[in-house]
Structure formats: structure tokens, C-alpha cells
Design a protein that fits this description.
- The chain is α/β, with parallel strands linked by helices.
- Strands 1, 2, 3, 4, 5, 6, 7, 8, 9, 10 and 11 form an eleven-stranded mixed beta sheet that branches.
- Strand 1, helix 1 and strand 2 form a beta-alpha-beta unit.
């Protein structure tokens, strides 16, 4: 039996209310050469029932032998994929209808087995913050092109992220994943799975390509890690639940917290340790990593989250590195770091309900609506479901597809 061109692997856990949207976004694709592998990490809700309602033979349900941490779950899920190109699609995320068509074209044109696109964010109706039922689309060029290993890795190792690393925006060759796993035991390694797997994929890929279009949507929901651990404060009990569900040990990151900065560090440094020769020319910027960690912890503190233990861990580490301590903890304030500016940021993080903030959001919303209506979309925009007639992530994907569809699949650059 011939292998499908694409394997859409959806690791899931207790997302009975969300995973159906993700599946439907794949079934809405303009090409049919794919399989969907839904890997249930021992959910305790009706996830299995939701998945089994789909009669399409391409939708397959598998279940882990026990509840696993993310890296183990993903490695188990990957082992069930038979397609030439694999994506690990989040169970609250979605693909635009033309996504597979455009990735197939780019893979052939650029002879690439590691590809990625721009990532859109969708805040659903249950998002624990402001701007619910909105889509945030980043700037995009509307074409595809080859990416060098240096262009991909240097910003990542320097902690100055250029490309969004969200897993739902990346395809990797099945043979590529297997080749990496053969050399180091497995493809997915750490809590921040993408920050270890993607660097390894980049150095061993036959070719890397950026499909510079917004083809993947990251869902921000009340159940998302990002919504709860970065953008909001769900309370101590909820935070504890998220933390208990991931690997607790760090092998290479200097700190032990669960910030995105630390997830990135652990992934990058794990990859560098596994393949020291391949990553020899890429130096990890520990100073920038520490600054990012401090900034992230301060933003969490401003939301009312208790980060005293994490701050003490950072201070203790810097105590052993006087140069870093002076540069990070005693850094002079710039105009953008004054207390006034800081509290402006705080008000934005918690969803400032003041008249000025409300007015500014309304002005920006009106400006974006007018620009999008004129077809001016490639500079990035935010649109609301009330203006563009969507109320969930699948309808949002359809709305976005209608906006970008004038960008022909065949118009790419080398």
C-alpha cells in the first residue's frame, strides 16, 4: 500500500471540545493525499468518542499505553505516521484549507524535507483575556524560498527569534525524523520539543524552505499552555496542574523554571550536547537567555503570579557569574524601561479596561478592518469574528483563506 504524502499527527489530551475543530481543518484541505493520526494521551474525557465519530478512513485513532510527558507522547505518536512529510498539529490548532497544497508545491520546488510557514494566533471565545474571537496575522511575503542552515539556527542560538518555532507550522520528512532518531535514540527530546527537534532537523535536512504565508493557526484557549503559563494567571492550582504534567528534570539548562526562555534553552542545549560537531559553530547566548528569563518572570509577577522561587533560582545562578549578574540585575533603565512604561505594559498584559486602552483598541480594530477590506494584508493585521463572520478556529481558517487565496500557490521564489 502506497504511503500518503502527508501525515497530520495530532497529539491530544482531554480536548474533547477542541480536537474536532483541528480534525475538520485537515479534512477541509484542497488535496486529499494525507492521513490523520490522533494520538490520545490517555484522556479522561470523551476525546476518543469525538474522534471515532469521523467515518473518513484517513482519520486514525491511537492511544498511548499510559499517560506520558510531552516528548514521550510525541515520539510515540510520530512512530505511527507513514506519510512522507509529517506535521505535529496541536489539538487546539488548525490549518488553512490550502496549507497542504502549498507545502507540497514548496517541497517539490525547493527539494526540501524541512519546511515551515507563518503562524497566525486565534483567541477563541473562551480565551481568558481580552480580544476574544480574533485572528492575529503576522506580516508575510506571499512566496516560498530556501532557507540556509545558518539563517535558521543563528537567531535561535542567539535567543533572538526570527522565525516562529510553533510546531503546528512545521513539516519534517519521515525519513529525516527517523535518521535523527537512529543517531541519538529519538527525535523528540525535551518539554520544549520544537527547540530540540527543529535544530537537529535543520542540520540534517536535505533542504529547508520557508512557505512565507500564514497557513497555520495557533489556538489560544482556556486550556492552552501559552494562555495559562505566559499570557494569564489561572491561579496556583491550575499552574500546578500544568507543571505536574511535564518532565521535571533539566539536563542542560542552567535554571529550573518553566518559562518559555528556559524551555528554549533546554531544547537548544540538549541538541548541542547530542551533536556537538554539527553545532560547533553555534554559540548559545546565555546573557540574552538570562535577560529573557528575567523579563518573563517580571511579566508573570505583574500578573500576580508568585515567581519568588524562580527569581531566587535566577539570582543564585547569577551569583556564580558576577559578570552576568552585573549586566542583567544592575542594568540601567532605558526610556522604554522606566516605571511608567513598565506599568503601561502591565496594563496591556492584564487587559486594561481603561477608556484610553479601549479607545486605542477600537481605533486599531477599525484601521485593520479598513486595510484588510482594501486587500492590504501582507503587512499583518488583526480581525474579529464579528467583522469577518467567524466564531471558531475552523471558520477563522476559512475567513483567512478567502483573504490570502489571491496569492497563487505557484508564485514562489527560489
Amino acid at each position: 500500500m502506497a504511503h500518503p504524502r502527508f501525515s497530520i499527527v495530532i497529539p491530544t489530551y482531554n480536548r474533547e471540545d477542541l480536537v474536532g475543530y483541528t480534525i475538520q481543518s485537515v479534512l477541509n484541505q484542497t488535496i486529499a493525499d494525507f492521513e490523520i493520526i490522533v494520538c490520545d494521551n490517555c484522556s479522561t474525557d470523551e476525546t476518543a468518542k469525538v474522534v471515532r465519530q469521523y467515518s473518513d478512513y484517513r482519520v486514525k485513532y491511537v492511544k498511548t499505553p499510559r499517560h506520558m510527558v510531552i516528548a514521550d507522547n510525541w515520539e510515540f505518536a510520530r512512530s505511527h505516521a507513514s506519510g512522507e512529510l509529517i506535521i505535529m498539529l496541536g489539538d487546539d490548532d488548525a490549518l488553512l484549507g490550502s496549507a497542504l497544497e502549498r507545502f507540497a508545491e514548496a517541497a517539490t520546488r525547493h527539494e526540501a524535507d524541512f519546511l515551515f510557514c507563518r503562524t497566525v494566533e486565534y483567541r477563541d471565545l473562551g480565551f481568558p483575556g481580552t480580544d476574544r474571537n480574533t485572528l492575529d496575522c503576522p506580516p508575510f511575503a506571499g512566496s516560498s524560498r530556501k532557507i540556509s542552515v545558518d539563517e535558521f539556527l543563528k537567531p535561535l542560538f542567539s535567543c533572538r527569534i526570527v522565525f516562529d518555532m510553533h510546531p503546528s507550522s512545521f513539516f519534517f520528512g519521515r525519513a529525516l525524523g527517523d535518521a535523527v532518531a537512529k543517531r541519538c535514540g529519538r527525535f523528540f527530546q525535551t518539554n520544549g520539543v520544537e527547540y530540540c527537534a527543529w535544530p537537529m532537523a535543520a542540520v540534517f535536512a536535505k533542504g529547508i524552505a520557508l512557505v512565507d504565508l500564514p497557513l497555520s493557526i495557533c489556538g489560544r484557549t482556556s486550556k492552552s499552555w501559552g494562555s495559562n503559563m505566559i499570557l494569564g494567571n489561572p491561579g496556583k492550582q491550575r499552574i500546578r496542574q500544568f507543571v505536574q504534567d511535564v518532565e521535571q528534570t533539566r539536563k542542560f539548562a542552567p535554571l529550573t523554571n518553566f518559562t518559555m526562555a528556559n524551555l528554549r534553552a533546554e531544547g537548544i542545549l540538549t541538541a548541542k550536547n547530542l551533536f556537538p560537531q554539527e553545532f560547533q559553530s553555534y554559540e548559545f547566548d546565555e546573557q540574552k537567555y538570562m535577560r529573557d528569563t528575567l523579563d518573563e518572570l517580571e511579566s508573570r509577577k505583574a500578573l500576580g503570579v508568585d515567581v519568588s522561587c524562580e527569581m531566587q533560582d535566577l539570582v543564585n545562578h547569577l551569583g556564580n557569574h558576577p559578570g552576568l549578574r552585573k549586566d542583567i540585575l544592575e542594568k540601567p533603565q532605558t526610556a522604554e524601561q522606566t516605571p511608567k512604561s513598565f506599568w503601561r505594559q502591565v496594563r496591556r498584559w492584564v487587559g486594561d479596561r481603561g477608556l484610553r486602552a479601549l479607545r486605542n483598541r477600537m481605533i486599531k480594530k477599525r484601521q485593520d478592518r479598513l486595510r484588510v477590506s482594501r486587500g492590504d494584508i501582507q503587512t499583518g493585521f488583526r480581525i474579529s469574528g464579528s467583522d469577518f463572520r467567524f466564531s471558531n478556529i475552523v471558520e477563522g481558517a476559512d475567513a483567512l483563506e478567502r483573504l490570502i487565496r489571491p496569492q497563487p500557490v505557484s508564485k514562489t521564489s527560489s
